[in-house]
């Protein structure tokens, strides 16, 4: 099948003219490209450079680093998917547990909640039916390589269905987040989705703002590895330096400032003067001279902090992931197409709505959920970060003060930075397109015999069901490939229980495209690339591989191709011998064809080999730098996974408590059914378990302490669970039998505090971090309960 037909079937733009790589003369320019080459539609040079970079038989430092980088990227992609699933579960359970705590949840609802705790067996297994496996392999290859189908489906599903579909699309179908082909196909899908959104939305002010499947897609995209890595590298240090100042109160809402002022006066003097009523209107609070005096320096401080954030973000433009920038570019392009008279301000409003509202600001407001900080920031830093995010959003969009008039006071920040931020947002859009490289990637994909997709059974069945539900819109024609496949597969199977939701490996293939057996031959037939061109590039690639495999050659200043070939041909390594003999023969063929000349020492090829080695040397540095960066990303994602799991563990412990309390036969007893008869069984008291002050402080469970430093080594805590879901924390001083203080805690209370974003628990002498205390209780008592 001709290249144009292949690419058109994938939905890749084809230019009107398909200029070739034809080269009638052997002359080359000094850059290493064919002098007669008149197109960059795709490059044979690039193809063989990829082979030189990633040859499996080469084991030098670069190859090892590349393997490590590929493994790391794979782990990030897999972990990102796990986190997405956990986040969805936590969102669901947050709302349901709230009802359970309030004793308003029916039994069937409790069982539904409990099903979300079931762990699926994540082992890779064979698909239950070989014929169905092939049909689904054909279906998912079609969905992956023709993104318009998924783009249309994402617009048709409901908000309740979108998360499950996005899990499959973002983290499975295009789950290799750092692999160019899948990333570019995913962006092509975004292009279709955004185009349709612009076509169907008539009100400019509602574009990309409403909570729709499209907006959810864009937000989910930013949560993939590259986006998380950017936020970590750019914002983490800035946010951490701010939250160190736990007592820095920068509240500027006059009403809140007035209330805080009144509270402080009461604490200091015990009463309020008559001219200061306890409750006032916002206008009265704003007119109070003392309130104004408190707010004025805070505004200056807030503007300084916001300016530092802006500078950091603007300076990071080269670090912004390509996909984020390309989406910004599409927003700009589509806006200008639909609104030809759109001003620069209108363009930047929409671009900023995506970049700030859906990407940067959520991380600033809740840095703990993005793992940008350790632990939970205090209430004052959290409020400051919220105000900073509001300032950035007002800067990116037209400020609206209808709900928060006090934000008008920050207008100087808007006026001083508006042009600066608009310039940044427009520069975000200045990235090239990827169609030519995607063209090559798709071409290469047709030559692969082992293109596989790891996907769970429920992802397959859910996608199948959604496609079938909307088939008349997605594929109205009987000749449509999507309709043909779905009609052959039949109706979608029902979802399997979570425990049975296995991962299967689908071999991806196209029944309508002819597999490419030999890329070189295909390129020759489609592009007038001669056999001499192919031989030249292959010869150069083999020389690069040989030099990389023999360190003593790689360290030499001068490159003697004939001597290198001879060294390889007489080596002890069978692979090198094979390559040496082959490359000597290829040199002879090229010389006979007058492409190269031994008399000048194969000058042109020698120069190109030298350039390739320089490129690979630079590549090694780039790979190592990327590894260091991604290791930090991977750690962040794993930390977030642990955080999510700790929340689920808290819910599990609570549900266990509910089940046991529902069957109590009296204080400290539970009812157990044996052979149809009920038998009262005494519940075992768990604990006490001892923890030192040093231990709890080191692990961040003690957030603040008023215990003098020289006495902390003598302080310890005993934690006991007399009945499930109830804990007694006793603070002891060495040498004394009786505790200094005791506190009874209910698991319900701790969960409610966590839901209400109450960060700490006051134990008089120490403040305990609620989330980390929950983790400690789960870790200490859950296994022992079992």
UniProtKB/TrEMBL annotation:
Q: Mind listing the UniProt keywords for this protein, alphabetically?
A: Coiled coil
Question: One Pfam family for this entry, by name?
Answer: RasGAP
List, alphabetically, the GO terms of the cellular component aspect. Answer: cell cortex
What SMART domains would the database entry show?
Answer: RasGAP (SM00323)
Q: Fetch the InterPro entries from UniProt.
A: RasGAP_C, RasGAP_CS, RasGAP_dom, Rho_GTPase_activation_prot
Note down the stretches annotated as region Disordered: 18-37
Report the coiled-coil segments: 55-82
The Swiss-Prot or TrEMBL record annotates one GO molecular function as:
GTPase activator activity
Q: Name one GO biological process term.
A: negative regulation of Ras protein signal transduction
Answer whether the UniProt record assigns the keyword Coiled coil to this protein.
yes
SUPFAM superfamilies in the record: GTPase activation domain, GAP, RGC domain-like
Keyword Transferase on this protein? no
Task: Please report the stretch or stretches of sequence annotated as the Ras-GAP domain.
Answer: 181-397
Q: What PANTHER family does the database record attribute to this sequence?
A: GTPASE-ACTIVATING PROTEIN (PTHR14149:SF17), RAS GTPASE-ACTIVATING PROTEIN WITH IQ MOTIF (PTHR14149)
Name of the protein this chain belongs to: Putative RAS GTPase-activating protein sar1
Provide the species name: Rhizophagus clarus
């Amino acid at each position: 099948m001709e290249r144009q037909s292949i690419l058109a079937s994938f939905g890749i733009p084809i230019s009107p003219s398909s200029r070739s790589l034809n080269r009638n003369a052997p002359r080359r320019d000094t850059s290493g490209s064919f002098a007669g080459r008149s197109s960059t539609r795709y490059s044979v040079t690039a193809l063989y450079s990829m082979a030189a970079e990633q040859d499996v038989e080469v084991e030098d430092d670069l190859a090892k680093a590349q393997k490590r980088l590929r493994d790391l990227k794979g782990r990030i992609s897999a972990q990102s998917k796990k986190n997405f699933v956990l986040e969805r579960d936590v969102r669901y359970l947050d709302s349901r547990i709230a009802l359970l705590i309030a004793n308003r949840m029916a039994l069937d609802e409790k069982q539904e909640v409990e099903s979300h705790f079931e762990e699926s067996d994540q082992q890779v297994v064979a698909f239950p039916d070989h014929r169905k496996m092939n049909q689904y392999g054909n279906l998912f290859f079609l969905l992956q390589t023709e993104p318009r189908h998924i783009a249309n489906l994402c617009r048709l599903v409901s908000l309740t269905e979108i998360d499950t579909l996005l899990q499959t699309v973002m983290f499975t179908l295009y789950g290799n987040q750092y692999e160019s082909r899948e990333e570019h196909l995913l962006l092509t899908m975004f292009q279709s989705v955004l185009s349709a959104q612009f076509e169907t939305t008539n009100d400019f002010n509602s574009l990309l703002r409403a909570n729709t499947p499209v907006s959810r897609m864009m937000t989910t995209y930013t949560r993939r590895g590259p986006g998380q890595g950017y936020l970590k590298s750019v914002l983490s240090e800035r946010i951490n330096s701010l939250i160190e100042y736990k007592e820095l109160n920068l509240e500027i809402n006059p009403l809140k400032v007035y209330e805080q002022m009144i509270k402080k006066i009461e604490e200091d003097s015990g009463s309020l003067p008559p001219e200061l009523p306890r409750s006032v209107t916002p206008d009265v609070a704003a007119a109070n001279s003392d309130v104004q005096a408190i707010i004025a320096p805070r505004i200056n401080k807030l503007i300084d902090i916001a300016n530092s954030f802006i500078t950091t973000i603007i300076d990071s433009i080269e670090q912004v992931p390509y996909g984020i920038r390309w989406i910004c570019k599409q927003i700009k392009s589509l806006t200008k197409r639909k609104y030809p008279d759109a001003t620069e301000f209108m363009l930047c409003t929409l671009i900023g709505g995506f970049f700030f509202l859906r990407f940067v600001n959520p991380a600033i407001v809740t840095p703990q959920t993005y793992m940008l900080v350790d632990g939970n920031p205090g209430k004052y830093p959290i409020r400051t970060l919220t105000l900073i995010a509001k300032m950035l959003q007002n800067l990116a969009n037209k400020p609206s003060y209808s709900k928060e008039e006090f934000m008008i006071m920050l207008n100087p920040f808007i006026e001083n930075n508006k042009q600066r931020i608009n310039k940044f947002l427009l520069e975000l859009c200045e990235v090239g397109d990827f169609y030519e490289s995607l063209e090559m990637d798709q071409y290469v994909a047709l030559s692969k015999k082992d293109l596989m997709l790891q996907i769970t059974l429920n992802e397959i069945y859910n996608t199948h069901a959604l496609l079938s539900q909307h088939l008349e819109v997605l594929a109205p024609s009987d000749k449509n490939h999507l309709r043909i496949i779905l009609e052959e597969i039949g109706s979608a199977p029902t979802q399997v229980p979570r425990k049975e939701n296995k991962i299967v490996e689908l071999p991806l293939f196209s029944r309508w495209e002819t597999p490419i057996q030999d890329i070189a031959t295909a390129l020759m037939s489609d592009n007038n690339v001669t056999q001499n061109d192919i031989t030249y590039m292959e010869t150069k690639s083999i020389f690069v591989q040989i030099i990389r495999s023999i360190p003593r050659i790689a360290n030499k200043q001068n490159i003697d191709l004939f001597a290198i070939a001879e060294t390889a041909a007489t080596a002890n390594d069978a692979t090198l011998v094979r390559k040496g003999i082959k490359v000597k023969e290829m040199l002879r063929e090229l010389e006979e064809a007058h492409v190269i000349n031994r008399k000048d020492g194969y000058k042109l090829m020698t120069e190109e080999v030298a350039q390739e080695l320089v490129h690979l040397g630079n590549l090694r540095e780039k790979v190592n730098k990327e590894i260091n960066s991604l290791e930090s990303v991977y750690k962040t994602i794993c930390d977030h996974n642990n955080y999510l799991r700790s929340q689920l563990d808290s819910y599990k412990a609570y549900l266990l408590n509910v089940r046991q309390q529902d069957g109590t036969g009296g204080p400290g007893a539970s009812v157990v059914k044996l052979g149809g008869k009920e038998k009262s069984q005494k519940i075992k008291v768990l604990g006490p378990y001892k923890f030192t002050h040093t231990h709890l402080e080191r692990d961040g469970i003690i957030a603040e302490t008023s215990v003098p430093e020289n006495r902390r080594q003598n302080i310890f805590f005993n934690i006991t669970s007399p009945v499930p879901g109830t804990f007694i924390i006793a603070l002891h001083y060495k040498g004394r039998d009786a505790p200094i203080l005791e506190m009874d805690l209910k698991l319900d209370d701790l969960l409610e505090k966590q839901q209400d974003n109450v960060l700490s628990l006051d134990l008089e002498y120490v403040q305990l971090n609620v989330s980390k205390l929950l983790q400690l209780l789960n870790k200490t008592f859950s296994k022992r309960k079992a």
